Amino acid sequence: MSGILELKNLGFVYSQGTPFEKRAVSDVSLSINKGELIGIIGHTGSGKSTLVQMLNGLIKPTEGEVLLNGKNIWDEPKKIRSVRFKVGMVFQYPEYQLFEETVYKDIAFGAANMGKSGDELDQAVKSAAEFAGIKPELLQKSPFDLSGGEKRRAAIAGVIAMNPEVLILDEPTAGLDPMGREVLLSRIVHYHKEKNNTVLLVSHSMEDVARFADRIMVLDDSRLVMFGKTKEVFSVPDKLEKIGLRVPQVTKLTQLLRQRGYDIPEGILTVDEAFSEITAFLKKEGKIW
Length: 289
Ligand code: ADP
Prior knowledge:
By secondary structure, the chain is of the alpha/beta class. 40% of the residues lie in helices and 21% in strands. The protein has eleven helices and ten strands.
């Protein structure tokens, strides 16, 4: 089965051929299946933003190809706008792009640009607002009257209203307080489950991606150094730490226990999992009952 998105030897160099030449992405090949939630992690400057901007045709690869449903997105450069509707992108701090007089109009903006109108547009806006957790009474307010978390969710709703086949979110929780982060992440996960859409989540928070992603891409210095199931990736914490990524603390703790002879599986990602595995071990050892 071929994936919804396939990257073939994808690469990007900024200002190629000038003294300011800078390689941002090197030779990335992989395939993403429809309906997957993919986490993309890597430290600042590893190439995450550049990579995802190539996936919706915002920047053109200097090497390799991006295939969407089997077709190179640059085969017909004039149609690149339609790719941006199919692969929706939420940039970092998207709330800075809110500019209409009402939240409703802001959410409607992209979908209207795609040609939606009337009832179809209205339905798209209301459904997107609901997915993003924007209450109906907020729709007629000015976006500037919303809280930080609400503004972020309104901006995301604007992309969801376009009903993209693939939704890419670049650091969606950056700058939010813990409560705002939780609300936003649960909304994204709910949207993904309900719609069975493909979602790519760029994050520097290992905890966030560990909890939700089906598979994780790890980038380091422009290269894809790992791409696998979340448990597999987190089962090699030493490798992650070597490239400057901090694994979830609970994963580190259970790894230390393993090293001390506790028979606990690798790649534990959540506190709940750790609790049940540690108690199961202690019961087996007759330490608790
Ligand atoms: P990340 O999203 O992981 O922080 P980026 O894709 O933003 O990584 O950056 C990858 C590399 O490309 C970095 O070295 C960065 O400095 C460089 N870079 C990013 N944007 C530009 C640009 N517009 N011009 C030149 N270099 C850039």
